[in-house]
Design goal:
- With 302 residues, this protein is an alpha/beta fold.
- It has three domains: 129 residues, Conserved hypothetical protein from pyrococcus furiosus pfu- 392566-001, ParB domain (Alpha-Beta Complex), CATH 3.90.1530; 92 residues, no CATH class; 46 residues, no CATH class.
- It is flat and about 70 Å long.
- Helix 4 crosses helix 5.
- The strands form two sheets. It has a five-stranded mixed β-sheet with strand order 1-5-3-4-2. Strands 6-7 form a two-stranded antiparallel sheet.
């Protein structure tokens, strides 16, 4: 995001005109999601879109709004950036990035890692870089949907990133429960929990950009009544987070060696291992063999 040299982008103030001057791109990038969306809608409604759609743009002409179009909340995969930067040294161009015209600006919708790679390349070589682009025509909602769809096809979001994205969409209050769930990649029941937390926190909800912090803040204010579906969604979110943590720590080591996995779990659960085995059997619809007091196992079918 390029910080502007001038800040006087609106009309001259007078006694009759007390409206807020239009936001420039840098200012919009600093806003919470809800305010950023309002500012973009105002800019789009002004009808001042630059009609030009060049096939290439200078690197400096591409504006980024990670608070709006980057579903992961601005976090980047540095290895992926380095890999793309290395690829740029071997070829003339990476795949075109997708930009959306709003006013005089070309906002990046898809291609944040490619843009970072071009920036890295320009910094290393000192060259002025122009990059291939493709233009997305349409409304702000269409641009947001395009960003959400593209994020699903690229690097997957973590559970925390999906929850934070859902919370930001709930705070903005622009979309239906189904649309918020689809954009964030979480369940409608989870969105329902978030909406209740937003009501519980009131005006202070916007002070918590991270979902977990918002949830903890609401819990300090008392119990929120949840439906059976919402309780299931809360449990599923916890399961997904812990499973992600295990996958990040162990990769495929445990699934590829179930004997090792069993011994690790036995060591970890200690005297609770029997209870774990029974719970796993119940979850999987299976029956386990139980030793009788004399040490002779009682065979039970799986």
């Amino acid at each position: 995001m390029h910080e502007p040299n001038d800040t006087n982008t609106g009309a001259m103030p007078n006694d009759e005109d007390t409206s807020t001057p239009p936001k420039n791109a840098w200012e919009i990038a600093q806003l919470p999601l809800g305010e950023a969306l309002k500012a973009l809608e105002e800019l789009k409604k002004s009808g001042d879109d630059d009609p030009s759609e060049p096939k290439r743009l200078p690197l400096s002409a591409v504006e980024t709004l990670p608070n709006v179009f980057q579903a992961r909340g601005g976090k980047m995969d540095e290895y992926h950036i380095s890999d793309l930067a290395a690829a740029r040294k071997r070829v003339d161009d990476l795949d075109p990035i997708t930009v959306w015209r709003c006013g005089k600006y070309a906002f990046l919708v898809d291609g944040h890692h490619r843009l970072a790679a071009y920036t890295s390349y320009a910094g290393e070589t000192g060259n002025l870089v122009d990059i291939p682009v493709q233009w997305l025509r349409g409304s702000l909602d269409e641009a947001m949907w395009a960003a959400a769809d593209n994020s699903k096809a690229k690097l997957p979001m973590t559970p925390d990133q999906r929850l934070n994205r859902g919370w930001m969409l709930v705070l903005s209050g622009r979309d239906s429960k189904a649309d918020e769930a689809k954009m964030a990649g979480i369940s409608t029941s989870q969105i329902g929990i978030m909406r209740k937390v937003k009501v519980k926190l009131g005006e202070e909800a916007a002070d918590y950009p991270a979902w977990k912090k918002a949830l903890r803040a609401s819990q300090r204010r008392g119990i929120i009544e949840l439906s059976e579906e919402e309780l299931d969604a809360k449990l599923e979110a916890q399961i997904e987070q812990w499973a992600f943590t295990m996958r990040k720590a162990f990769g495929t080591k445990l699934p590829d060696n179930t004997t090792l996995a069993a011994k690790v779990l036995d060591r970890y659960f200690g005297r609770k291992i029997g209870e774990l085995v029974q719970t796993l059997a119940d979850e999987c619809g299976m029956t386990v063999s139980v030793d009788d007091p004399d040490g002779d196992p009682e065979p039970m079918p799986f």
